[in-house]
Amino acid sequence: MAKNKDLMDPETLPYRPCVGIMVLNRDGLVWAGRRIVIPGDEMDGALQLWQMPQGGIDKGEDAEVAARRELYEETGIHTVSLLAEAPDWIHYDLPPHLVGVALKGKYRGQKQKWFAYRFEGETSEIAINPPPQGHTAEFDEWAWKPMAELPSLIVPFKRGLYEKVIATFRHLAG
């Protein structure tokens, strides 16, 4: 597909199937990483760069398996227990200036299946830069954040998605 965003109708593009991962510590705070900005990606030009881990679901891959894989690939976190799965897929649309550019120009946004986990390991297992097994670093900093702060830390076009995720998992914060 050509990357000519002037001729592209977002309605004709599919949503990329992905997983989102909320990791809560024993105090009910949520893991968030500060994204490394890559020119032309969906975060390019954004001031709010903190987000929870997320990533694509491989063809034929179970969503919960994908969530654990993405969590490990992006953060090194593997000592977790599943707390909850969002009952529905949650969508977001790219803003018009990123359609045909971000997400390799193939998608209008993402549909995400969200999972919440309790982190049961030691902070020494968290490895973001470099992440484990030679994966490309996506974050340059991480912190435990109050769940309610997350929508104000993400790029504006994902804010509604984060509000839905928080509404789904709010009861887990304690």
Structure description:
The strands form two sheets. Strands 1, 4, 5, 6 and 7 form a five-stranded mixed β-sheet that branches. A three-stranded antiparallel β-sheet has the order 3-2-8, with no helix packed on it. The longest helix has 13 residues, at 63-75. The radius of gyration is 16 Å and the shape is globular. The protein is built from three helices and eight strands; from the N terminus they run ββββαββββαα. It has 174 residues and is an alpha+beta fold. The model has no long low-confidence stretch (mean pLDDT 89). Helices cover 16% and strands 28% of the residues. The chain has one domain (14-172): Alpha-Beta Complex (Nucleoside Triphosphate Pyrophosphohydrolase), CATH 3.90.79.10. The chain has helices at residues 63-75, 150-153, 159-169, and strands at residues 15-24, 30-35, 50-51, 54-56, 80-85, 90-93, 109-119, 139-145.
Write the layout of secondary structure elements.
Blueprint: E1 15-24, E2 30-35, E3 50-51, E4 54-56, H1 63-75, E5 80-85, E6 90-93, E7 109-119, E8 139-145, H2 150-153, H3 159-169
Parallel strand pairs: 1-7
Antiparallel strand pairs: 1-4, 2-3, 2-8, 5-7, 6-7
